């Protein structure tokens, strides 16, 4: 094997070359000379070979084809790197952790996780990044640029991956499936959070009260309870809220928006939970059962009130006479006996009542409506209490 003699020395840096032509090319790195100009865009290059490679960006020429998958490249070096995907060859090894990479550039980026080196700094806020594309993505948060647009609804995004996820809302694609229950998700992060419901994992702890959460976003929302932070402000009345959904619900009190419609009767509601409760009137569903007597209720609140008939609990006390009640509505009605307030007025004769139920009964004297019928003689009454009194006359007759 012969060693090539390097007789041509660079007078600027002392580097030696085997041929004068190579020395001439090298010296252009010192002089900055770029004699080869692209006729399409005017870009200049120090070597003709570099110009030829560049011109492929204009012509679209990709002469180097992968024999395994047929993918083409404009540079042979890019083909060599690509082929490592097929061969699995990873010649670049991290000296800190032993992880290997198919490209040296990927190794360089990886090593920054060990050194903490972040060479790419944002000129607006000073935040630093390990990879250039991370800086470019971050800078869009300052410029507001959203270059990735959905072809279906024209919504724009600052990151391409956000567009990809958004497009699944149109296609219905849910590529991430739970191996335990088969439920599918649009995002892998959603699957990861969901899987914690199976294993019970809650890795995010509140540093104030120690409560744990399966999702970091839920922890962030929870911490606002401790800090009192209310990030979501109403544009109509300036009231602020801890959670966004609370603001959305509140704003409907201003707009009158009722987006949740009952499929049975068409009645609309401002909140979905109210629609769910309302639908039980149609379905007859009563999911809340009293453990003492088995009686069932549409709302959990009704069950709580009912249970006080068993426990005897009367948590609501009248401040005037200390009489106690099992419901706050009963206390409010009772307090009118002290204040003399009668807020319910008959629209026909203007007589006032302390309870709405009494006004409803009174109005039947004007309408002549008698809803309560005696099963023995078919006589009708406008109050149930009058029917009960009447029925006693039949009971006495039967006794004698």
List keywords for this structure.
transcription, 400 residues, Double Stranded RNA Binding Domain, zinc, 14 helices, two-stranded antiparallel sheet, alpha+beta, two-stranded antiparallel ribbon, single chain, nucleus
Mean pLDDT rating: 91
Q: Largest sheet, described in full?
A: 2 strands, antiparallel
The oligomeric state of the chains shown is single chain
CATH architecture of the domain at 10-61: 2-Layer Sandwich
CATH homologous superfamily (4th level) name of the domain at 10-61: Classic Zinc Finger
Rg estimate, integer Å:
40 Å
Helix content: 40-55%
Describe this protein's structure.
This is Zinc finger and SCAN domain-containing protein 2-like. It holds the Pfam family zf-C2H2. Belongs to the krueppel C2H2-type zinc-finger protein family. The protein is an alpha+beta fold. It has a domain at 10-61: Classic Zinc Finger (Double Stranded RNA Binding Domain, 2-Layer Sandwich). It is 43% helix and 14% strand. The chain has 14 helices and 28 strands. The chain has a two-stranded antiparallel ribbon. Strands 3-4 form a two-stranded antiparallel ribbon. Strand 21 and strand 22 form a beta hairpin. The protein starts with 7 loop residues before the first strand and ends with a helix. The model has no long low-confidence stretch (mean pLDDT 91).
